[in-house]
Amino acid sequence: MNSKHLLISVLILFITGCANTTIYHWGDYSDTLYSYTKEPTNESKLEHKAELISIINLAKSKKKMIPPGINFELAMLLVKEGDNDGASKYFNQEKLLFPESEKYVALALKEMEVN
Description:
This protein has helices spanning 3-18, 29-38, 42-61, 70-81, 84-97, 102-114. It is an all-alpha fold. The protein has two domains: 24-67; 68-115, no CATH class. Helix 3 (42-61) runs antiparallel to helix 4 (70-81), helix 4 packs antiparallel against helix 5 (84-97) and helix 5 runs antiparallel to helix 6 (102-114). The longest helix has 20 residues, at 42-61. It is extended, with a radius of gyration of 20 Å. The protein starts with a helix and ends with a helix. The relative contact order is 0.10.
């Protein structure tokens, strides 16, 4: 192998090593969650809710998967707001994408019906 091929091989390895290989689109989830957790105001809740919706929409457009729990978390926020129909939609979407969440979703739906 001559030095040109070696250099090209090293560059390819370097570039692929630096590539973002996550299959999920997280957006600014950790930032908005931190803000909402640190100071749970209506404004921080709305920002986090908007970020969850953005993650769902952008993941689809970027051909990445919606991270586990995002639909569930958005559904829980909607339940607190009294939007049970919207919450049901996102609970079911979570169950569809992550079948292992079925028990948690069933419990949340049951709790939603009780309240």
